[in-house]
Write a structure and sequence with these properties.
With 341 residues, the chain is of the alpha/beta class. Helix content is 26%, strand content 23%. The chain has an 8-stranded mixed β-sheet with strand order 11-10-7-12-6-13-15-14, with helices on both faces. Strands 2-1-3-4-5 form a 5-stranded mixed β-sheet, sandwiched between helices. The structure holds NADP nicotinamide-adenine-dinucleotide phosphate. This is Riboflavin biosynthesis protein RibD.
C-alpha cells in the first residue's frame, strides 16, 4: 500500500505534469523518493520527442543516484521503444526498487510497463490517486481513444428545426440562459470552430463570456473554408490567435488541432459545417438548444448529412435533457453502428 509520503509525492507528480504542454503525448509528472522518503529529483514531460517524466527526473541525479529509490509517476511507465526508449527499462537500469503510478497506460504500444518492471523484480503499485489522474487527463484520454480531438457539435434551433430565418438572420433564437450555457461550455473547450458562412453572416467574436466579462480560459477560434476572413472581423480581435484553415478537409484539420494539443473541439456551425461533421462521423456529442418558436422556411439546422434513405439515418442516444429558461437542451451522442438499426 502506498504510504502518506508516496501519496503526497503523487500529488506533486500531478502538479508537475501540468507544467508540460498539451500535445499528442500525455502530460506526466514524476517524483523520485529515497528509501527514507526524501525527494531526490522531480521531472515532467515537455511534449513529443522530449524525455518522458521518469527519464527527465533520472537525468537530474548522478550515476547510481536512483539505486533503491521509489519512482512516483502519474502515468504507468511506458514500455515502447519510441523516439525516447521505454521508461520501464530506464527505471530498471537505474536500479529503482519500487514504482508507484496513478493511471494505467491506455496505449496499445506503450502499455505493459508495469509487467516489465515486475518481471525485473521491481515492486509496482498502480492506482494511487487514480481518480485525480483520470480527471486531469480526461481530454487526452478521450482524444487518445479517438485518435483525434473529441468533437462536440452545437446548434440552436426553433421547435421546427430551423437555424435561421429565410434572410439568414439567426441572432437570437434562444434566450439568455441557453446562451450563458453555451458560453460556459466554450470556456471548457480548447477550440471553437465555425465555417466561413457564419463568419460572413454573423461576424461572431467566438469568445467565452460571463456576462460582459471574458472567462479566464478562452478557446482558440478556428474558421474553416476558403473564403477569406475579413480584416475587420471580430474574431480577429479574439484574445487567442485565429487559426484559419482554407480547406474542407475536416480530418486533416482535426489532425492538426490534435498536434497543437487542442483536445476538445466545439463546433458552432453553421448548418453546412455542422452537417459536414455529422456526415463524416466526427460528431462525438451533439448539443441541440431548442427554442419554443417557429421559423419555417429553408434554413434547416442541418442540411445534407448523408442520409439518402431512412435506413441510413444517424441514430443517437440522449444523455441529458435540460431546461434552460424557456428553452430545452438535448445532449446526445451517436449510437454505435451495431445498435443503430
Ligand atoms: N442556429 C445556429 O446555431 C447557428 C449557428 C451558426 C450559424 N447560424 C446561421 O447559419 C448561417 C450560415 O450557415 P452556413 O451553413 O452558410 O455557414 P457555415 O456552415 O458556417 O459555413 C459554410 C462554409 O464552411 C466551409 N467549409 C469548411 N469545411 C467544409 C466542409 N467539410 N463542408 C462544407 N463546407 C465546409 C465552406 O466555406 P468556403 O465556401 O469558404 O470554402 C462553406 O461554405 C447564418 O445564417 C448564420 O446566422 C446559425
Amino acid at each position: 500500500m502506498a504510504d502518506v509520503v508516496e501519496i503526497a509525492a503523487m500529488r506533486r507528480a500531478l502538479e508537475l505534469a501540468t507544467r508540460g504542454p498539451r500535445s499528442r503525448n500525455p502530460q506526466v509528472g514524476c517524483v523520485l523518493l529515497s528509501p527514507s522518503g526524501e525527494v531526490l529529483a522531480e521531472g515532467w514531460h515537455r511534449g513529443a520527442g522530449t524525455a518522458h517524466a521518469e527519464v527527465d527526473a533520472l537525468s537530474k541525479l548522478p550515476e547510481g543516484g536512483a539505486r533503491g529509490a521509489t519512482a512516483v509517476v502519474s502515468l504507468e511507465p511506458c514500455n515502447h521503444v519510441g523516439r525516447t526508449g521505454p521508461c520501464a527499462v530506464a527505471l530498471i537500469e537505474a536500479g529503482v526498487s519500487r514504482v508507484v503510478f496513478a493511471l494505467a497506460d491506455p496505449g496499445e504500444h506503450s502499455s505493459g510497463g508495469a509487467e516489465r518492471l515486475r518481471s525485473a523484480g521491481v515492486d509496482v503499485e498502480g492506482g494511487v490517486l487514480e481518480a485525480e489522474a483520470r480527471e486531469f487527463l480526461a481530454p487526452w484520454l478521450a482524444a487518445r481513444a479517438l485518435g483525434r480531438p473529441h468533437v462536440t457539435v452545437k446548434w440552436a434551433q426553433s421547435l421546427d428545426g430551423r437555424a435561421a430565418a429565410a434572410d439568414g438572420t439567426s441572432q437570437w433564437i434562444t434566450g439568455p440562459e441557453a446562451r450563458a450555457d453555451v458560453h460556459r461550455r466554450r470556456a471548457e473547450a480548447d477550440a471553437i470552430v465555425v465555417g466561413t458562412g457564419t463568419v460572413l453572416a454573423d461576424d461572431p467574436a467566438l469568445t467565452a463570456r460571463d456576462g460582459d466579462d471574458l472567462f479566464p480560459r478562452q478557446p482558440v477560434p478556428v474558421v474553416l473554408g476558403s473564403a477569406p476572413v475579413p480584416a475587420g472581423a471580430r474574431v480577429r480581435a479574439h484574445p487567442r490567435a485565429l487559426l484559419a484553415y482554407p480547406t474542407r478537409e475536416l480530418g486533416a484539420v482535426l489532425d492538426d488541432l490534435f498536434d497543437r494539443g487542442l483536445q476538445r473541439v466545439f463546433v458552432e456551425g453553421g448548418p453546412t459545417l455542422a452537417s459536414a461533421f455529422v456526415s463524416a462521423g466526427f460528431a462525438d456529442r451533439i448539443l441541440t438548444y431548442i427554442a419554443p418558436t417557429l421559423i419555417g422556411g429553408p434554413r434547416t439546422a442541418l442540411t445534407d448529412v448523408g442520409v439518402p434513405t431512412i435506413a441510413d439515418q444517424h441514430r443517437l442516444s440522449v444523455d441529458a435533457l435540460q431546461r434552460l429558461g424557456s428553452d430545452l437542451l438535448v445532449v446526445a451522442r451517436p449510437l454505435p453502428e451495431s445498435e443503430s438499426h
